[in-house]
Amino acid sequence: MDKPKAPIDYNNAVITIKGLEKSFDDYDVLRGIDLELYQGENLVVLGRSGTGKSVLIKIISGLLHSDKGVITVLGQDINKISDKEMQELRIRIGFSFQNSALYDSMTVRQNLEFPLVRNRKGITRKEIDDAVESVLDAVGLSQTINQMPSELSGGQRKRIGIARTLILNPEIMLYDEPTAGLDPITCIEINELINEVQQKYKTSSIIITHDMTCAKQTGDRIAMLLDGQFQREGTFDEVFDTMDERVKPFFDYNFIQ
User: How many CA atoms lie within 13 A of 203 on its CB side?
Assistant: First the structure.
């Protein structure tokens, strides 16, 4: 399945990264990377495990600090804003964690209500109920509203995790390995959901993955992270039109025609 076309504003970068570096002890993870995410775009960051993909989006969301470089998110330099401003910015950024990060002791409804009650002071009961029903409908899981996370499948937990992120109407979505640990059919369903979110909520997204099918189905643009830098960038076909032995095995292993 090819990626559906989306309206992308290439004159409006919602994230701009210049010269980003990050090391842990003596290990240089990110070695001076530059990147832009445009309004309405799904950008896939593809690379092997341990190459710094997840580190990148944790820096963008302020969960990690960079060693060097400029990171501008929705017009704000995240290295220069206060903790309070960073908290306010995070509300505009949805982070879909690899493990879905649901609270096991809460029902689906309670998991979805939690970020609303915490971040929207004065919100009414009706507004909460309407928002919960809307995002559950968007991810196709209205029937799970009173279930516990332990009663859901892995794919359902992923969907509820995305719904909890969407409930604050974020402008940017950050997906960390959205198809990890899922069967092939469920992976396709999650990929389709990511595209539906882009179309319905007009989000700009960075999708971190090493899943080639996810990259092909969700990415308007692919950026391949190798040896701490972006070595190839473009459409899926452009990135893999190469005999580079660091890139070719990704394609060959997945047998994508």
Answer: 29
Q: What is the pTM of this model?
A: 0.92
Extract the tokens encoding 167.
Answer: 């409930």
Closest by CA position to 194, among listed 214, 210, 209, 211: 214
What's the pLDDT tens digit per position in 124-168?
Answer: 999 999 999 999 999 999 999 999 999 999 999 999 999 999 999
From residue 92, how far is each of 3, 29, 111, 135, 198 by CA, in Å?
A: 25, 27, 19, 16, 15
Q: How many residues does the chain have?
A: 257
Q: Domain 1-92+173-238 maps to which CATH number in 3.40.50.300, 1.10.287.70, 3.30.300.130, 1.20.210.10?
A: 3.40.50.300
- Separation of CA 171 from chain center: 12
Q: What is the DSSP letter of 167?
A: T
1 band by pLDDT with thresholds 50, 70 and 90: low
